[in-house]
Write a structure and sequence with these properties.
Blueprint: H1 12-20, H2 29-50, E1 58-65, E2 71-73, E3 78-86, E4 94-95, E5 97-98, H3 110-116, E6 123-127, E7 130-134, E8 141-151, H4 171-184, H5 188-209
Parallel strand pairs: 5-6
Antiparallel strand pairs: 1-8, 2-7, 3-4, 3-8, 6-7
């Protein structure tokens, strides 16, 4: 569903007007858009908390290692790190494990760091908008750092914009924005009806994103190999 449908029937704005008996005067489109985007952010959060192996808004960032440089800036749109891989020699890749600098008992000067860590078992620490590598690269490595991450969603702006979620669940946005209006106007009956249906859609969304990856080898046992219970 687009923010607004040119035919005036099937967009998110139109769905809100249908649910509330409103129009662009009683519920201005700018207010609808603000509330829709607020619910878009909420839906993104529900999805991130429910996801299995199938990622929702995943990206891969690649950058080159610079000799004697430990700090590397994150992509501006990063939301959650999924995986970090490093090649110090340009050939052999290793998965880097997260660590907390506060856990280190020793000092963190470059000599000590490179004595304490091995390029075949790298670690990384995150601080503010940066990632710090352990050990520190001693030589340049072209495209030697890869970060798999979840990206922040892009808010809906133009009327032709459509949310990046399955159409089956896009009405969560119009129902959510409708609930905001109903609460503001103290429309008790609308609040109750919309809340029930909205919660049902959110539950279905969470179940969907919690079970999207079905390509797994499942092992089934004969009945006599299961434990018996009285």
């Amino acid at each position: 569903m687009q923010l607004s449908d040119p035919t005036g029937k099937t967009g998110l704005y139109e769905d809100i007007n249908f649910l509330l008996d409103t129009d662009a005067n009683s519920y201005p489109n700018d207010d609808k858009k603000r509330n829709i985007n607020k619910w878009y952010q909420k839906v993104h959060g529900y999805i991130l908390n429910s996801m299995d192996e199938w990622d929702f808004n995943s990206q891969i960032a690649t950058t080159s290692l610079v000799a004697n440089q430990q700090e590397y800036r994150f992509p501006t749109s990063i939301l959650k790190i999924k995986r970090v891989e490093i090649t110090y020699d340009g050939t052999n890749w290793y998965k880097a494990e997260p660590m907390d600098l506060a856990e280190r008992g020793s000092v963190s000067d470059s000599t000590t760091v490179n004595n304490d860590f091995d390029t075949t078992e790298p670690f990384y620490d995150t601080t503010d908008n940066s990632l710090f590598l352990y050990p520190i690269p001693t030589a340049a490595s072209s495209s030697g750092l890869k970060i798999w991450y979840e990206e922040e969603i892009t808010e809906l702006s133009a009327t032709t914009d459509e949310p990046n979620i399955p159409e089956l669940y896009q009405r969560i946005l119009s129902f959510g924005a409708s609930l905001d209006y109903a609460i503001k106007e103290e429309l008790t009956t609308k609040i109750n009806i919309i809340t029930i249906q909205l919660n049902e859609m959110i539950d279905q969304l969470k179940k969907y994103y919690g079970s999207r990856s079905v390509d797994r080898n499942m092992i089934m046992k004969p009945l006599d190999q299961f434990d018996e219970y009285e």
